[in-house]
Automatic annotation (TrEMBL):
<dbReference type="InterPro" id="IPR028135">
    <property type="entry name" value="Ub_USP-typ"/>
</dbReference>
<dbReference type="GO" id="GO:0005634">
    <property type="term" value="C:nucleus"/>
</dbReference>
<keyword id="KW-0378">Hydrolase</keyword>
<feature type="compositionally biased region" description="Acidic residues">
    <location>
        <begin position="498"/>
        <end position="511"/>
    </location>
</feature>
<feature type="domain" description="USP">
    <location>
        <begin position="132"/>
        <end position="753"/>
    </location>
</feature>
<dbReference type="InterPro" id="IPR018200">
    <property type="entry name" value="USP_CS"/>
</dbReference>
<dbReference type="InterPro" id="IPR028889">
    <property type="entry name" value="USP"/>
</dbReference>
<feature type="region of interest" description="Disordered">
    <location>
        <begin position="467"/>
        <end position="526"/>
    </location>
</feature>
<dbReference type="GO" id="GO:0004843">
    <property type="term" value="F:cysteine-type deubiquitinase activity"/>
</dbReference>
<feature type="compositionally biased region" description="Polar residues">
    <location>
        <begin position="467"/>
        <end position="487"/>
    </location>
</feature>
<protein>
    <recommendedName>
        <fullName>ubiquitinyl hydrolase 1</fullName>
        <ecNumber>3.4.19.12</ecNumber>
    </recommendedName>
</protein>
<dbReference type="InterPro" id="IPR001394">
    <property type="entry name" value="Peptidase_C19_UCH"/>
</dbReference>
<dbReference type="Pfam" id="PF00443">
    <property type="entry name" value="UCH"/>
</dbReference>
<dbReference type="InterPro" id="IPR050185">
    <property type="entry name" value="Ub_carboxyl-term_hydrolase"/>
</dbReference>
<dbReference type="InterPro" id="IPR038765">
    <property type="entry name" value="Papain-like_cys_pep_sf"/>
</dbReference>
<dbReference type="GO" id="GO:0016579">
    <property type="term" value="P:protein deubiquitination"/>
</dbReference>
<dbReference type="Pfam" id="PF14836">
    <property type="entry name" value="Ubiquitin_3"/>
</dbReference>
Amino acid sequence: MHVCKKQIHQGICLPEYESIIMLPAVVDLPSTVKVEVYPVEIYLCLSSNLESTVSARFSRADKIHAIHQKIRQHFNVSETAESRLWMRNTDTSSERLRNLNMTVLDTCLSSGMTVIMEIRNADGTWPTSRQHLFHELSFTVKCAFLPLQCLSNTPPLTEYFLKNSYLEELNFTNPLGMKGEIAEAYADVIKQMWSGRHYSVVPRVFKTKVGHFASQFLGYQQHDSQELLSFLLDGLHEDLNRVKKKEYIELRDADGRPDQEVAEEAWRNHLRRNDSVIVDTFHGLFKSTLVCPQCNKVSVTFDPFCYLSVPLPVSKERVMEVFYVSLDPTAKPTQYRLIVPKAGRVIDLCAALSQATGIPPSQMAVADVFNHHFYRIYQTDEFLSCILDRDDIFVYQLSSGCVDQDGEEVVMAIYMRERSHYRDYGSGSNSYGTSLFGHPLLISVPRAQCTREDLYQLLLKRMASTEEGQSACGSTDTNSQDATDGDQSAGAEPSGKEEEDEDEDEEEEEPASCAQANKRLPGRRRYTERRKKALFTMQAVNSNGTTERGMGETDGSFSFSSQPYIAIDWDADMKKKYYNENEAEKYIKDQSMDVPHQQTTVQLQECLELFTTVETLEEENPWYCPTCKKHQLATKKLDLWSLPEVLIIHLKRFSYTKYSREKLDTIVEFPLRDLDFSGFLLKKTVNSTEPPCRYDLIAVSNHYGGLRDGHYTSYARNKDNGQWYYFDDSKVTYAREEQIVVRLMHLSVVGFINMKSK
């Protein structure tokens, strides 16, 4: 395609050019301008035939009217026919598209959704019934928008909007606000929810407005409920700020003045720039004290807050479950439950297991087993934070400590594979297809014994086991060729001995090498030394056990430049005869597994105490000391000075450190009524006009899941009848107070109202 820059700028193409460049649309958002590379692809159909759909692409800047015309044209709908449009989501719930002048972006239409045209009947009725065909969404909103339910049941804020008090306080000129759009959209949702005329309400316009001013909330992806709540409270405050022109205020340090004087000054200064219903309802004041570690300069300031983000006490220990594989071939893998340091390393895990098994940590290797192969083999100095609770961790005993004179050993990863009867020509080779099975092994082999014959003998012994009432043994003769496909069985030359046929049930004296310990492979039939066909062959493979590699044999010994992975290939018939897969998969549980895992439980007061604990600033956030004239890692302490009418507490369940990232499942307990915060307030004198420090619970936001995904639900107490309700996406059910207590381990955000305000 050939077009000059000037033509691209003008958006035209001259006739002599064979190709035409279609310039992408530009979508104008309130906070940014984006070039639309991929338009929205939606499906169009008529309500009379929902199965007959046609796809069409539209820009996010297109009006709904363009979609309306497209449907009329494609399905030959008369211009005189009265129609209406419905937007259907992927979950089959639908919503009316009432305003044809709204854009695709404003209506939150996204690719994969369907727009349905419904045509009025000649008798004036509509052919479909919303009650059974177009199920509108419940007034709950999925995932992060559940804080709407919590705020909706906050009496002071909801009454403010229902009484239209906000109309006189809308601030359209605040540069920090959103021109009153967020406040108006929120008011519309609240009025619909509490009108009593709707079975359900779809807050789509409100969601669109939020997405316009905070692009992270665009679309239908999951978002953090606390992040939305913070944005919403701040947006409502700025849209309803009674201060039309904010004046510059120079903040002063305490400089030894009484706390009462400094606090009152800070609150007056705050109201000179911030005065709204959000400040009246949700803002409190805390005291911040910084101490310079060098000159002991003390800086005291009082700062407002809208909610408290309190940390959860983090346990320094962690419970891990592992499978221990002993060198003893007669011992089955044993599952242990261990307590290890949360910030510890793999060597600490080995040390904890050593106390239970008596095996030195130096003789252990730790690996993550997934789908019959090693997903990862850990080094002893790696941090335990890289091991997830859902991982299947195996710890292998490598050696008994007795090595040869040079002391050099090679740790080999052993995989079990079953070889099919047919060659895999589709992979570009004529080798036999294989599939992994069983648990892999980690073994330690002296380098001098890294020969094919020695490895065969070692693996044969390692896989042997004893079973009560049965006895047999694996072959120890490897001096023959595989009778099935001619592959070399174990690598040694034939000895010239002739194979003797014998019936397997015939009682005959076993060779000495076979009779030792009366051992057998986990199977049903005996395999004597005189059988010259090997049980399995060996191949060097990659870490996934799929690609075969050369074993680098020199003088009958193997040489490895990196971690060796060896596959034991079993012929299907041999595996069926001499390997009992069910028996090999069994394991036993140590008595430590019988001890129930105790869920960590803390009181909400403990979280507040941790919030007010002295801490040292991090290197990324130093404090500039006016006395030293440089940045210092000062100590900082936060204390509560005054509390708001409605107190919001956010629990920091997601813990991020230098070594780990995790979600804390700690249970946080607190009374649902009469929660006393007076012990945390520095301000001890409370006059009659100020509310007392006792609160009742009115709303809870829960998060289920982990760091990358999850699901939000909420509880809220109805402001009119005091009944608790449980909100889960589009489902709303009655709830009992006991249910809230049960789910405290998922608690993310809680809201309390002052008892005097009820």
